[in-house]
Each structure stands twice: as structure tokens, then as C-alpha cells.
Amino acid sequence: MTAKAATGRTRTGALVRAAAGVSALALTGQLTLVAAIPVLTRLYSPEDFGIFTIYLSIVNILGAIAGLRFSTSLYVVEDKAQALVALKLTLVAICATTSIVLAAGYLLSPVIPERLQHLAYLVPVGMAGIGVADAMNCWCLRFNHMRDFGMGRLILPASMALLQVGFGLARLGDDAMVQAHILSQAVLIAFLCGRLLKPDDIRRIMQTSWASIAAMARREYKFPLFELPSALAGFAIINLPAIFIGSLFGTAFAGHFGVAARLVTGPVTLIALPLSNVFVAEASKGLDRQHLLGTAFGLLVVATGLIALPVLGVGFVSPYVVVPLLGPSWMPTGQIMAALAIMCAAQSLSTPIQEVPTLFRRQELRLLVDLVRALFVFAPLLIGAHLGHDPLQVIFVMAAGGATGYALGIAVALHLLNGPGGAQRSATGINRRV
User: Fold this and answer.
1) 22, 402, 409, 433: which has the fewest C-beta neighbours closer than 10 Å?
2) pLDDT in tens, 332-341
3) Which residues contact 27 (CB under 8 A, 6 or more apart)?
4) Rounded CA separation 83/74 (Å)
């Protein structure tokens, strides 16, 4: 009994250290990004931010589905040999989907507004970068390369902030912010590939037969069947509002929304998401549900203190501090931040345990939750705009709906963790039995 207790304390201590290390690196990267905002708002106009926000929203949605969600199958593969097959399958899917998007952009370019036409060719590049980076992040988590994963969370935002400032000072044009984003993705991918893949791994990936890839695709069909629409719904909730706001209220208002989202949702993406990744890594070690339930509650407490409460505080003071920091033309940004803080606080609590349905192979349940949350977000936005309500009022109601949807996700994840089967000892075993 004493040995078991010691082992539990050791495991918990290692978990806390891993979560703290990843979150600290992510926080450093986020602070770099936030520190650059006052400079960027003086180098770029709200319209420039609006164009970048629309681009980023599109590539975030498409990048999340670029690999047809086969990247998440890395969480449940049995060994490195299967992981290499899954990685090649993901890369093949990224090439195929990127080619389709490139062709669609070429065909649709005549009907795209002139100022946005160049995005038709930049979006596929950004989409592919996000897809490859996501696959390498999944590899980090499956094989417990937590330090490399954490360094990636620092490198991406820091390099993007520095490149955007540098390109702005050099006055490289309207799409300078987009170019900086693409280059920062390239920096991240180069770092992760250099750290994670040995020459022998690359050789084995290239030699993987098409028959093995096809067999892997058939075996893991649930990931594109259920994870794909679920991811599409989840990322749409986060990114489509900016596109709709730009189309309904103008690119300048989309720029205000984009800056507000960067300041408020950044901590959720870069701090809460690593907590989710730590949970996945812990589940992959073959632990029982009771331990995972305790881990989930521990991460919820961490997320509350580290993210949710500070985000609500930032939302409360933002209308009073934005103008001194960013300038008089950015007043709407502070009001939007106050609205988004409500939804982001709930999202920060949902994110650490968002992969629970996937770990239990209940992708259809995750899809249902994401679709309901999407309804709660987009219905107020579209109905409010149609009725001619004030944009800020519409955004506040949208944020409240999103918070309700994330609360539903928390309830579902805890229900699965608290379900029958507490004696099961491995993540793979749980996946097979549930």
C-alpha cells in the first residue's frame, strides 16, 4: 500500500511538473504576442488586422481538418511502427486536401473581393503548415516529448510576433501579417521535425507501402467519420464568428474582433490546450479511470486559477485600458474583449478534458456536443445581425451561448470519466471496451 501511495505521489508530481513546464513556455510565448500588440496596432490599420483575422480564421478551420483528423489516431497506435504509418497517412491526406483547396481558390478567385484575392493562394499554404504542425504535436504527445512540445508553444507565437513587427517596420505590404504567420509555421515545423524524426524514421516513412496506408485508413475510419465534422464544428465556433463579423459589419470591425480575440483567447489556446495535451499523455500511459478522473479535476482547478479567473478579470478592466494601450481608434476592441472573456473562461475549463470522448472512442458523442455548441454560438450571431441589433450586443449574446456550450462539454467529459469500467488499466483497453 505504501509503495502504491509513493508511486501515485511520484506520478502526480511528474504530471504537475509537466503541466507547469508546458504552460510556462506557452505563457511566455503568449506574453511575447501580447507585448507586440501595442506596436502592431501602430504599424497596421484595423483593416489590415481584419484581413489577417479573416485569413487566420479560414486557415485555422481548414488546417484542423487538413489531415482528415488521422493525426489524432497517433494517440491510440500501439507502437512506433504503426505511428510512422499513421504519420504518412496524415501527410498524404494533407497533400490531397491542400490541393483541393488550392484548386477551389483558383476557381473562386474571380468572385472574391479584390482586396482578399491574394488569400486564395496563401490560404492553402497556411492550411498545410497547420496540418503538418498538428501532426508533429500529436507525435510529441504520443511519445512523451513534452519539452519539445512546450518549446513549440513558445516558438510559434514568439516568431510570429517578431516577424510581424519586422515586416511592419519594413512596410512589406498589406499581406505582411499573413506572410509572417506562414513563416512562423515553417519555423515550428522545422524545429519539431529536427527534434523528433531521425533519418531512419524519414526513410521508413518514405518506404511505407500504400497497402499499409490503406489498411490504416480503413482501421481508423472513425477519425475522419466523426472527428472530422467534430473538429470542423469546434474550430468553426472559434473562427467563423470573425468571418461573419467581417462580412456583416465590415473588415475594420473584424480587425477589432481579431485583436480582442488575440488578447483574450490566446491564453486559452496556448495555456489550456497544453493542459489537455498533458491529460492525453497521462491517459496514454495506461491508467485506470479513477486516476484519470482525479487528474481531470486537478487540471480543472489549475485552469480555473491560471486562466479562467484572470481572463474574467481582463474582460472586466479591458474597456478602461485598451485606449491608453492601443490608441483611440481601438475603443471597440476593449468592449469586445469584455464579451469574449465570458466564453473564453468557460472554454478554458472545457479544453483540458476535451479529448476524453476521443480517448474512449466516443467520437460521435463529441460530434454531438460540438454541433450543439455551434448552434448556441451562431444562432444568436446570425439572428441578431438579421434583426439589426447593435454588433456589440450581438457579440455578448453569442459569447453567452458559447459559454453554455462549453459547460455542456465539461459535463459530458466528466460523465464518461465517471462511468463504468474503473478497473480497466490502459487507454487502449478502455478504447476497446467502451
Assistant:
1) 433
2) 899 999 999 9
3) 267, 270, 271
4) 6
